[in-house]
Amino acid sequence: MRSTKPGFFERLLRFSFLLAGLAGFLRLYGAITQHLDILGFSQKAWLPAYLMAAGGLMGLFNLSIWLILKLKPFAPAWLPGAGVLINITAYWLERLLLWAPTQRSTNTIWMIGLHAAWLLLALISQMQMKRRLNEHV
Hints:
Order of helices and strands: HHHHH
Number of strands: 0
Helix content: over 70%
Distance between the termini: 6 Å
Structural class: mainly alpha
């Protein structure tokens, strides 16, 4: 009999997807409510639409992963790691391609550390999930 109760690190990783999803929806909300300010500051007509789309997609993506991990105790072990990698890749692509050159160097060390911690959490969670899936009682 396999345990359906997730371990501490699995729950912590699942919570991180919930937070990332809420951050995506907050980004969408901020882009909608601050539409005129963004246009005035950036002078780029596409930027508010991009921020709305990116926030909505990342919100849906992360909340979908959270929901799958919450409702399906035997979800594929690769799913959380893939979700973390997609989040990190999306962040760094946006940072390198869309941020102003003067802003790219801000908080770089913090974000590298945060993403390294998120990857470590995904790795530990994956090991814990595999161990739980292979349990025999």
